[in-house]
Write a structure and sequence with these properties.
The complex is a heterodimer. Chain A is α/β, with parallel strands linked by helices. Chain A is globular. Classes of the chains: A alpha/beta, B alpha+beta.
């Protein structure tokens, strides 16, 4: 009897083990079948931003924390940013880091969705002037906020302390023939005309059509005074050093200042009396996004003190949580002018192409 | 025995064969393994070498453009007539399809173009004077203006934005050379080269599986099999080679001159081997460079490895077959003399003679054969001794030691055989029973020694009295028998008896003294008196007894007389 019971027990166990192994094999097979699909179906957060905003290590932490994949596309100019957001191809982007002017344009084109700052607890840590969102032009409409300030940079002047005994006070220094061939300017149609308008004491973003010819001639004059127009910060560093540049319109602001100083150049930084155009880059969630909650998490993550401080440390760009120390000493002289959409982007671009190509003044 | 013999041969053969196959497989595997690495290494080196050759070709190509540009700059320095200079430019554009534009740019007037020939489709067009532009802010102008005569400045590769037309926004690079007149730099000649047709001169010769890569010194892709990866910086994107291939960072940083790496295949892409080379670019002092790269599917590299594997496998098969054959041969060579010995042992055990053993061999087999031979001799010797002693034993068992005659046992064995023969042949036989008279008294009177001498003399007498063929035996004491074959009649039998009785008439000579001995002879005939051995003997005994009685009576009568 005991022997039979033992045998029955053994048989049952064997049967169970067979069932279990079949189940295991089935599960493995299913897993193997499903693996590619699950991999493909993994959540991907698509981020459109500027170089250095989302470094791989910073992204990796977020990816690990939320078990998602983040695809970061970087742009180096507003034109490209615009083109990428306007392109209907591909999956589009969930998030975009753009300056206030671009945000305003995107709101106008209904490309963004309003943010609920209650879902972004880290906003409580921001400096007061960035918490008063209604006072920042371009990021709100009808009482709703569409973007969260992340970083900003005024386009001040970088100057060589060896060549300037006192910091330049006005943007007119860029046109000063004394520095001919020792000036660098940024290759951007929008900013180019805004700069010329400020030089002439005009509203930078609302240039009257009748003024364009004159401003174009001013920009030709600027062209004749510069050593070159640059696009990338690395390029500006090389040109600055190689051609003993005296003064540069720093489109990348303090970021560029940091790079130049890292390269061993003795440079100063100043906001001229006409004021400095400043971009305020904000994070916004696009209307195309299908994962708003995750995108909101991303914005909150970007405003995390550790992330924001690391960003400032690495890029030399100010964050919205702490006042930047860089301007101390030289100090800003003029006002900071947050960028706004310009009156006629196409016209500016068309003219700018001819200016940069080298058309002579009589053709404007 | 046969299975045993096969066993050793088979086992030895299998052992040797497996040894040789194992050795062949081992050697084959190591050859394959090391060759694979060497082959892959060689393929990588050859890819690197190809890349280096390509880079040198490209440098030579840049050099050609540089020489053209420098030549045109020297022409521009001497040719005052702009029309003729324009013709020179046009001639150069006509002969170099990759040249897109050639111009003379002034060192003054903010780099105003003085002569500019554009390729517009198939036509070479000289741009009208009022459309000429100022180019002093372009690196190819301000960098070249600072150069000595005869040298050139190579611009970085970029997308052309100098022309308003959208379709002219193509990858280009410009080569500029200063125009020096009397030690004064008057301007620069700039040749704008369309990158694609220029590079096609070099990479068009590459077979299809090769992928071609080119990056600038910051790592931005300029050429990539996937065109969307190129000139990212022009679209505000940085698509960097060092981010795709981490090892190339060392080239960008100047820590290495070349890099070879392989990327495992994915479901969409096959595995590739890459080789990258840092190609100096621009003039020597500048330290500028580009990264030139080639990719090759790993499959083409591994294809050779597989071919190698297949040929090694073939060699391995041949080696194994040879090994098995050798093993069979060796096992035969070793086991054949053993088999000879085994056969010899078998034959010997049957007591037959066998062929020669391999005793002359000096090896272990020879030793074994010699030992076997010695053993065989010893056994033969012992067998002979044994048979001699057995014969003696048989003699002892069947003969009487005193007289040397067959004893009762032998007689009793022999008698039935003789009777059987007689029965078959139909010829009768006679049995004589001889008993000495008063032998006891001889023994008592003269002693046993004399008795024995008497018995010996009796035996000799009986043997001498009967026929040669008749069998004499001593049954016991003074009892003797004579078995006579082929005795067909009573007369013949009585003749024998008579002859025998007469033999006792003469006294025996015992130790030189006459010694009278009497014997009683009983006769019985087969098959007349008996039909079997026992009855025949009993009958003869009985007859003898009657004779003895008559002898006593005769003696009694003579005593009474």
């Amino acid at each position: 009897m005991a022997f039979r019971a033992l045998r029955q027990a053994a048989d049952t166990l064997a049967r169970q083990m067979r069932c279990a192994s079949v189940a295991l094999l089935l599960a493995m097979g299913m897993g193997a079948l499903l693996a590619p699909f699950t991999a493909q179906a993994a959540t991907v957060l698509r981020v459109l931003s500027w170089p250095g905003y989302a470094d791989p290590d910073v992204v990796a932490v977020f990816e690990k924390r939320h078990r998602v994949k983040v695809e970061v596309t970087t742009v180096a100019s507003d034109e490209v940013l615009r083109a990428k957001l306007d392109s209907p191809d591909g999956a589009g982007f969930d998030l975009v880091a753009a300056n206030t002017a671009e945000i305003s344009r995107l709101i106008a084109h209904d490309k963004l969705i309003p943010l609920l700052s209650g879902n972004i607890p880290n906003t409580a840590r921001q400096l007061l002037r960035f918490r008063q969102l209604q006072s920042i032009a371009g990021i709100h409409r009808r009482g709703e906020v569409y973007a969260m300030p992340f970083t900003y940079s005024e386009m001040g002047l970088v100057y060589d302390r060896q060549q300037f005994s006192t910091p330049p006070r006005s943007i007119a220094v860029l046109w000063d023939v004394r520095w001919q061939g020792k000036v660098l300017a940024f290759a951007d149609s929008s900013h180019g005309f805004s700069l010329a308008a400020m030089y002439r004491g005009l509203a930078p973003f609302r240039v009257d059509a009748s003024r364009f010819s004159a401003l174009a001639k001013d920009l030709v004059a600027l062209r004749r005074n510069v050593r070159s127009f640059y696009s990338l910060p690395e390029e500006s560093v090389e040109l600055f050093r190689k051609h003993k540049v005296a003064v540069m319109h720093a489109n990348y602001g303090q970021q560029q200042l940091k790079q130049l100083r890292d390269a061993g150049l003795d440079v100063g930084y100043v906001v001229p009396k006409e004021g400095a155009l400043a971009w305020l880059d904000c994070w916004a969630i696009t209307r195309r996004s299908t994962q708003v909650a995750l995108a909101t998490e991303w914005i909150n993550y970007m405003l995390d003190p550790a992330v924001s401080r690391q960003f400032t440390r690495r890029q030399g760009l100010a964050n919205t949580l702490e006042e930047p120390p860089v301007l101390a000493g030289d100090g800003p002289m003029g006002p900071i002018v947050w960028l706004e959409p310009v009156e006629d982007e196409t016209l500016r671009a068309r003219l700018w192409q001819r200016i940069v190509s080298g058309d002579r003044p009589n053709r404007f | 025995m046969a299975r045993m013999k096969w066993g050793i041969a088979l086992r030895l053969g299998a052992l040797l064969a497996s040894f040789s196959v194992f050795a062949a497989v081992l050697a084959g595997y190591y050859t394959f393994d090391s060759s694979r690495e060497r082959l892959q290494g060689r393929a990588e080196r050859s890819l690197l070498a190809t890349t280096q050759v390509l880079a040198r070709h490209m440098q030579a190509g840049f050099g050609t453009v540089a020489r053209d540009t420098a030549f045109m700059a020297s022409v521009a320095a001497t040719e005052m007539d702009r029309g003729r200079l324009a013709d020179v430019f046009k001639a150069s554009l006509a002969t170099h399809s990759s040249y897109q534009q050639i111009r003379l740019i002034s060192a003054r007037d903010h780099g105003l173009e003085l002569v500019r020939i554009d390729r517009q489709g198939d036509a070479l067009v000289r741009v009208a004077d009022d459309l000429l532009q100022e180019k002093a802010h372009f690196p190819f102008v301000f960098e070249a203006l600072g150069l000595p005569a005869g040298t050139v400045y190579m611009s970085e590769f970029g997308i052309n934005h100098e022309d308003a037309a959208k379709d002219s926004a193509l990858p280009v690079f410009s080569v500029a050379s200063p125009v020096v007149q009397a030690g004064q730099v008057r301007g620069v000649v700039v040749v704008r080269v369309a990158a694609e047709p220029f590079l096609r001169n070099f990479n068009a010769a590459l077979p299809t599986p090769y992928g071609f890569f080119l990056s600038n010194r910051w790592g931005d892709f300029l050429v990539h099999p996937d065109a969307t990866q190129t000139f990212g910086f022009d679209r505000g994107q940085r698509i960097l080679i060092q981010e795709s291939f981490a090892q190339v960072a060392a080239l960008i940083d100047g820590r290495a001159e070349d890099a070879v790496l392989s990327q495992p295949g994915t479901t969409d892409e096959e595995a590739l081997v890459f080789s990258f080379v840092r190609m100096p670019f621009g003039s020597q002092g500048e330290g500028r460079f580009m990264v030139v790269g080639l990719s090759q599917p790993l499959a083409t590299v591994q294809g050779e490895v597989l071919d190698l594997g297949r040929s090694i496998l073939k060699i391995l098969l041949v080696l194994s077959v040879v090994g098995v054959a050798l093993a069979a041969g060796v096992s035969r060579v070793v086991t054949q003399p053993l088999q000879v010995l085994v056969k010899a042992a078998q034959v010997f055990s049957r007591g037959q003679s066998h062929g020669a053993l391999p005793v002359q061999r000096s090896d272990e087999v020879g030793e074994l054969a010699r030992s076997f031979h010695d053993m065989e001799q010893q056994i033969s010797r012992q067998l002979t001794e044994l048979s001699v002693s057995r014969d003696a034993m048989a003699q002892l068992a069947h003969h009487d030691t005193l007289t040397g005659l067959p004893n009762r046992r032998m007689f009793e064995q022999r008698l039935p055989q003789v009777l059987e023969l007689s029965r078959r042949s139909g010829r009768g036989c006679a049995l004589l029973f001889v008993d000495l008279d008063d032998f006891k008294s001889i023994n008592d009177a003269h002693g046993h020694a004399v008795g024995d001498l008497v018995l010996q003399a009796v035996a000799r007498t009986i043997v001498g009295a009967v026929r040669q063929v008749d069998a004499v035996a001593r049954l016991a004491g003074d009892e003797f028998t004579v078995l006579c074959e082929n005795v067909d009649s009573d007369d013949a039998a009585l003749q024998i008896v008579d002859k025998l009785e007469h033999a006792f008439d003469t006294p025996f000579d015992i130790d030189g003294r006459p010694f009278p001995v009497r014997a009683s002879v009983g006769l019985s005939l087969f098959p007349r008196d008996a039909h079997d051995a026992h009855t025949l003997l009993a009958s003869a005994d009985e007859a003898m007894y009657r004779v003895k009685q008559s002898h006593r009576r005769r003696l009694f009568v003579s005593l009474r007389r």
